[in-house]
Specification:
Number of strands: 3
Shape: globular
Structural class: alpha/beta
Distance between the termini: 43 Å
Radius of gyration: 14 Å
Length: about 100
């Protein structure tokens, strides 16, 4: 029996300046197919990537993987980043934070 391979939507934001949550929403809106009415907050993001049914783009993949640099909003002690990271849980989504080049 063949093993099913999970499809991944990979959004690579490394090298982009992401200083605020607003700049994160701006960066993921197009590649993730977020609708104009998307709430631009962590609860709305959690619904989008965990519950699904909001973005046809995200819903067409098994897993969403977002790559970011460890700077700006994703710096070590940033409270907003910790809250955003908590939305990336379970099998359907991953946030990968890289040391900047």
């Amino acid at each position: 029996m063949a093993k099913k391979t999970e499809s991944e939507l990979v959004v690579d934001l490394r090298g982009r300046s992401i200083e605020t949550l607003d700049s994160f929403w701006d960066a993921v809106a197009e590649p993730c197919g977020l609708p104009e009415w998307f709430g631009r907050n962590i609860d709305a993001w959690r619904d989008t990537i965990q519950t699904r049914g909001i973005s046809e783009v995200i819903d067409s993949y098994d897993v969403l993987v977002v790559h970011v640099d460890k700077q700006g909003v994703f710096a070590e002690r940033n409270r907003e980043a910790r809250a955003l990271r908590s939305a990336f849980t379970g099998r359907q989504s991953r946030l990968v934070v890289h040391e900047p080049y």
